Amino acid sequence: MNKRKFGKHNDLLSIVGLGGISIKNSGQQSATNLVDFAIDNGVNYFDVAPGYGDAQELMGNALFGKRNQVFLACKSTNRDKKGSQKDLENSLRLLQTDRFDLYQLHAMKTEEDFEKATSQHGVLETLVKARKEGKVRYLGFSCHSIRVAELLLDFFEFDSILFPVNWALYLKSKFGPSIIERCQKENIAVLCLKAMAETLWEDPNNKEFEKCWYKPLSDQKMIDLSVKFTLSQPVVSFLPPGDEKLFKMGLKAANNYSEISEYEFKYLENIAKNTSPIGSEHEVFI
Predict the structure, then answer these.
(1) Packing angle of the helix pair 55-62, 28-40 (nearest 10 deg)
(2) How big is the CA angle at 75 (ends 285 and 5), to the nearest 5 degrees?
(3) Cβ atoms within 10 A of the Cβ of 202, count?
(4) Distance of alpha carbon 171 from alpha carbon 158, whole angstroms
(5) Distance between CA 162 and CA 241 in Å, rounded?
(6) Distance of CA 106 to CAs 75, 102, 140, 143, Å?
(7) pTM (2 decimals)?
(8) 102: helix, coil or strand?
(9) Which of 206, 197, 209, 199 is nearest to 242 (CA)?
(10) Closest CA to 277 of 143, 162, 179, 171
(11) What stretches in the chain show pLDDT beneath 70?
(12) Chain centroid to CA 153
């Protein structure tokens, strides 16, 4: 498995990660099997959050005895210091660890999110304190808005951003290039969401991929191309959609990765013209 440097730090992350949503509600044995499969195939980047149901407890049990083999990321949607501190301590307990390699502000989308998170007694104070105490090594945020990403990058020296880098969003809606370019200049690690997204669900009550908030690509050739596109940008790693089958297809695409060719790029450009992306130039809709 290829690995890339985590921004300005020396940690090397696998170019594909395992998101906790993939093991949500799967039962302990299935969760452990998937975690073991990922590690056996060279995956060392794991991401989870309180909002993913029972995923923290399942992942904590699955990683027992293997914690030092992985780069473990977690996050909080709480915007205040008190609530986020509770999230952090509970996540450490459920994941059976004394520290996170990366802790993030989760789903930063509005200017209100920014104001609350960065205010006095906001969640950012929790992150800074946790880093001083050794409970967290690096600090980051996940974001679905260009404006909010810019505000956060202006306000604080983050180590990483977890951000949508999707072929159709990038090529049709022009979402993302400015943030990716800025992070490259400032040596901020870009971890990727939505690499394997196709479009919004027409039927939000779909049964095929119940843990996916958008319609994912499910054809291996298109997944290979979409992953090629994302990994050909100056990024570190991507998280496949929340589904065991799709994680394995994303892993296969990562193992087959080579830089996207001009022909492949133009092919995706043409497809993007007739695709309805999951967002606009300014934000992702989900």
Answers:
(1) 60
(2) 95
(3) 8
(4) 27
(5) 14
(6) 5, 12, 9, 7
(7) 0.97
(8) strand
(9) 209
(10) 171
(11) none
(12) 17
pLDDT digits (tens, 9 = 90+) for 99-137: 999 999 999 999 999 999 999 999 999 999 999 999 999
Where are the alpha helices (H) located in 25-145, listed in sequence order?
Answer: 28-40, 55-62, 81-94, 111-118, 123-132
pLDDT per residue as tens digits for the range 25-48: 999 999 999 999 999 999 999 999
CA-to-CA distance for 237 and 230, rounded, in angstroms?
A: 9
Q: What is the rounded distance in angstroms from the CA atom of residue 196 to the CA atom of residue 17? A: 13
How far apart CA 93 and CA 78 sit, in angstroms, is 18
For residue 143, what are the β-bridge partners? 108
Report d(CA 184, CA 258) in Å as an integer. 20
User: Token digits for 120?
Assistant: 């006095």
Backbone dihedral region of 157: left (phi > 0), alpha (psi from -120 to 50 degrees) or beta? beta
